[in-house]
């Protein structure tokens, strides 16, 4: 059987009673409420005073019991007199403790008999607040980002390339639904690199197709940032929006696509120029002569008459030109020709030592007939 008697003693709320028309009802209800709250406060305070009195009585009784115990071990007459007083005090405190307990028990019994009201009808059993706070994420270092990108590409390169070749909105949406792990920054970065590679290879139509998919991924990532959600959870919203977009949104997408393709062409041009410079430097290093000089640069620095001699490979003409030059100037030019490999001394000259570098203009001129031009 369920006991419903507890519901028989409920004090109705202050605004349920009907009042006479001549009575100011709001004021009456306010006074009733204030009076009831004041009675409750007084009752609660009386209970708190009883609990404090009981606690103080227990404390005094404990101290009296300790004192009695200490005196009971003494055999002097004074100690015995003190012991009698301590025992009497202990007895009195025990009676006082029982009185406090009885008063507190009566107070609690009276509390149970009090009718319930709007303030006591229910009490909070427990309270718990949960706040979803995004934990602080440490910013990744460049090395960590590079390693993360490398690992991701090694695992999903085939899937990323497949997505980059798609043309229809529905196909792209379905593919990302089947492969949601591709909706991330690493995919967008790989597609950018892929576009530059295709432009360098002069596969322009294919580059434009991959560029379109790159902007699709970047728009999804930007949408996720604006909504502050995981991009894997909002890519469907992007496709729903782009397929039903107004002309302004579609124009914004197309403008970003065209700007991106221009940036790709610029990056590809820079890469090609850098590759050409590296190639030219490699070729230049291959051309360097035994003295570390570039024969092309040395040739350009020679007087026009000497350039003609090398063009025609005419040693007699070169001897004539040398005799007309200032000896110091002629020595400098011939030394640079040898260091660049433009002039290859004969075997007898190769067998010489460092005196070759200090040879006079006349000695070089005498050896002209025994040397060859390469």
From TrEMBL:
This is Hsp90 co-chaperone Cdc37. InterPro entries: Cdc37, Cdc37_C, Cdc37_Hsp90-bd, Cdc37_Hsp90-bd_sf, Cdc37_N_dom. It is found in: Cytoplasm. Residues 1-129 form the Cdc37 N-terminal domain. The keyword Cytoplasm applies. Belongs to the CDC37 family. Residues 59-102, 343-374 are annotated as: Disordered. Co-chaperone that binds to numerous kinases and promotes their interaction with the Hsp90 complex, resulting in stabilization and promotion of their activity. The lineage of its organism: Eukaryota, Metazoa, Chordata, Craniata, Vertebrata. GO terms for cellular component: cytoplasm. Residues 122-283 form the Cdc37 Hsp90 binding domain. Keywords: Chaperone, Cytoplasm. It comes from Oncorhynchus kisutch. One of its GO terms (molecular function) is protein-folding chaperone binding.
